[in-house]
User: What shape does this take?
Amino acid sequence: MSLITTDSKGVFVIAVTPFNDDGSLDRASVDKMVDFYFDKGADGLTILGMMGEAPKLTQAESIEVTRLTLKRSADKPVVVGVSAPGLAAIGELTKAVMDLGAAGVMVAPPSSLRTDDQIIAYYRNVIDTVGTDVPVVLQDFPLSTSVQITSKTLLSILDAHPSIVMVKHEDWPGLQKITDLREAEAKGRRRVSILCGNAGIFLPEEMQRGADGAMTGFPYPEMMVDVCRLSNAGRYDDAQDIFDAYLPLMRYEQQPGLGLAVRKYVLAKRGAIATPAQRRPGAALGAIAVREVEKLIERQERKLEALK
Amino acid sequence: MSLITTDSKGVFVIAVTPFNDDGSLDRASVDKMVDFYFDKGADGLTILGMMGEAPKLTQAESIEVTRLTLKRSADKPVVVGVSAPGLAAIGELTKAVMDLGAAGVMVAPPSSLRTDDQIIAYYRNVIDTVGTDVPVVLQDFPLSTSVQITSKTLLSILDAHPSIVMVKHEDWPGLQKITDLREAEAKGRRRVSILCGNAGIFLPEEMQRGADGAMTGFPYPEMMVDVCRLSNAGRYDDAQDIFDAYLPLMRYEQQPGLGLAVRKYVLAKRGAIATPAQRRPGAALGAIAVREVEKLIERQERKLEALK
Amino acid sequence: MSLITTDSKGVFVIAVTPFNDDGSLDRASVDKMVDFYFDKGADGLTILGMMGEAPKLTQAESIEVTRLTLKRSADKPVVVGVSAPGLAAIGELTKAVMDLGAAGVMVAPPSSLRTDDQIIAYYRNVIDTVGTDVPVVLQDFPLSTSVQITSKTLLSILDAHPSIVMVKHEDWPGLQKITDLREAEAKGRRRVSILCGNAGIFLPEEMQRGADGAMTGFPYPEMMVDVCRLSNAGRYDDAQDIFDAYLPLMRYEQQPGLGLAVRKYVLAKRGAIATPAQRRPGAALGAIAVREVEKLIERQERKLEALK
Amino acid sequence: MSLITTDSKGVFVIAVTPFNDDGSLDRASVDKMVDFYFDKGADGLTILGMMGEAPKLTQAESIEVTRLTLKRSADKPVVVGVSAPGLAAIGELTKAVMDLGAAGVMVAPPSSLRTDDQIIAYYRNVIDTVGTDVPVVLQDFPLSTSVQITSKTLLSILDAHPSIVMVKHEDWPGLQKITDLREAEAKGRRRVSILCGNAGIFLPEEMQRGADGAMTGFPYPEMMVDVCRLSNAGRYDDAQDIFDAYLPLMRYEQQPGLGLAVRKYVLAKRGAIATPAQRRPGAALGAIAVREVEKLIERQERKLEALK
Assistant: This one.
């Protein structure tokens, strides 16, 4: 039952939540999916994130998904998204999942926050609520939350709360923010683990600027694994070659709203889950889109073959 | 165990949720508060609304507040707010509170909705989720949700879903929307009950335009009761006289964010709850604001005395 | 040709822009309107604000409205709204109106700003653009701009730019911000003039908390004049009596979007402008709304009579 | 002096506006830049768009940039962006640029629009203002405007206004919208030209779904030219090969806010403009970002070489 720390590195895959076609939880697929992610080289998982359809689950279902995932993940770390409109719900879910053995919890700011002070106060309230012994991932994803956190504000929050051990970095543009955090660290501020989201679309640059890995759900986790591994070995050109081969599909998958349909389609195709079904409301992938995705996959395979 | 219908009328007070100073639920105050509202003439209550600090409660607490309120309200109707980011949570809470004897549930649209079709689809999903036998109140409150529902869109939704029996009207400006709904009804569209929110700030005009009453939490429910009663009797000038006496405080209470602190201060002062405490995060009423409120109350009492 | 300063006080009426029914500028009404405002006791005017339909004017028309207003205002100060999406347009219009004799310019932040640093940088760019010798009014109106400026951020901006001599205060809730600015001043920060907007709806409290007057366009400027005069004389109860008499109409006029139709209707009725016409797009006042306004005016006159 | 029509096709490059390092207009670079774009195969230009820093120009400058560009473009079509907060400004600039010989004007909706009816009314007002003889491009770019236009709403607008001859398509996700428009056309609705923006990031799929070309400013216009040409010839795989070679840089350039700095850096490097300077406020490209861009260009050239 490992906890994430400021030194956590590697690839934490943002897991989907498998559903049956009737919208019920597909419990059977959870094991298959967990195995798939770890077989492809994941170092950990993050469940119940935005792309995990978390808000569509009842609280009981959230806890069950956590229990099932943790059981199958054995000693690998699993972070659980606990973002909610209110602190009480965050506190309740955090306690439940940490008791079950989660490695930490992830919290994105509610979209009502505007000023720096509001953002700082929000995370103070979160830490007061979950307690200082629970490792927290701060999710910085303005495209989705519309909350803009400057590097300065982020550093203030990190200074105040040592239990925020990781940043899920997906500001856009956000490369400078990684540089700011690492330069601050070089000048004596404390270290924080930075795992990058944003569908992986800037992973080569992010790794070179000092990120510790990826936390995103692109349905070819081997892409993130390879890019991180090669980057850590200083083989930046090779990392970029791999990345480039996947980029056309990655770009297609990054479409807001539609992206999850692409992701689940590919995961089902690869056998990681039984069906691409999303719980309602969810955008379905039309016939033309399926053809587009299939063609991108075919081209991707050709390119990867050529790289061997 | 009465249900709300398209013919529901009168004053449904938006109840606060009483907390102790340490942020725990003040169960003992629930009875006092329920008695207070009905003593002042309320026809029903609405709990777990935005001003009921609903998002700050755990699900278990939400259900307990509902149980306590329903028990004390005897056969009076109690509507329960069930708005949530996801349909599953809405469905789960709806089932729980209807089983306990709620008169109906209230649902505001999530702030991500933009186009007419998105709003229409959302309420279709909500009705599919809660079932067509649960009376639903559609809360139309753009200032808070940022979702703008035109009269045309609202009428489409009402046409499609007979179980939406009531609109909590708090668009701003929104007087024309009441007129639109009533004109549509005169031309053969089905009737819907319209209870008005927005802190009561347009109640005299709303009643004259065809509203059926008020659903708001101004801490002098007797204001809403008197304005509705006098309006229904055609005594519009007397209604406006009463309204005008309360208006300076009503205006002060309508300040977003701060309003709940004013409301709870007055309710505590009037003995309806033990303390004005809000669960975190909540704006406290500073010393100057307390003086301002006290002065407004003092003037209000003088004016009401003069009206007798 | 007086300039506004940090000591400016009193009532600056937000002027409407008179149009003919065909949407062309009603040049003839400008003189009548200016005379009306000053006859009712205004100390100055503010033109080309949001309620002055400024974005509907061409640049040439903006300059002509300024020229006509300044000419008729003789030596009374006239502030000109110069908010625009870009700095170049702000700079160009500022130069033009200051050359014509304006007393200062007013700038609201563009709605894209989010973080404290973005807001601070914006006003630095504005001052760089207009030059440090032009007196600037910072308009703080989050309901319209969606930009939230904390007291701390506002004080940083005021510290950095002495030429920002005035704040048009219309945050909501915003009473604490006035207190914050005055407490900072008591502790040695420099003084700034605070004139209050928000349709005048909190004017009595604002004056008691240290505001210097009003900058809003309620079509009975004598209300603002009387409330300010009585407040300055320490006669707060008398000020509140006057305020209360106007409050029902003020509340009605504060409806976003619709408010300007109410304002122009009353101004036309009082002879200040020839017709309530707005340039397209503009909400018209329907027949029912006209009856509501007329009734509120009638009641208002009865109440004012009773106060004499 | 050609006008755009519903049959317009090809690549209209979104032109930047060249500035000197002191922020003044770099008139001399306009000719160079126009020549560059047409040398690379552009069929037309679009100036004064969002990426043309249009809001940073005074009206006089906007007209001068138009005049200079039109003069150098000879008989090639040049569309001019005329989006503005108010209709009068749109009308004034439209008249000026059409008199100078523009091929049409482009209008994006103001970010205050929410409901379908508001969007429809807005374009009715625009067409009333500019007149039905001016060809209009409707810019559909929700990521920037936050206005969401459904296919149904878009078709209503196109039905009502034949002078809207072109859609600048940059919804995200938006591929289905192209399909919707073309399916409607197949069923008898009138044709509209669809040129795609969004930094070109979906151009291969867009062309296959029936788009007529590209309208975006990626600083290698030859990419758009080749992808359009090959797609029109049915050589989709070749088109995608070209596209893929440019995609890593395209993705980097698509970063909101920062993208223009990348674009101008590359254009200056390629000799199309004298310097990458933006008028204030504008994000500069830091040293690390420059290295990242340079590396992407180097890799891009290697890949293009390999495709020959």
In short: Chain B touches chain D through ten residues (CB under 8 Å). Residues 10-235 of chain B form a domain with the TIM Barrel fold (CATH 3.20.20.70).
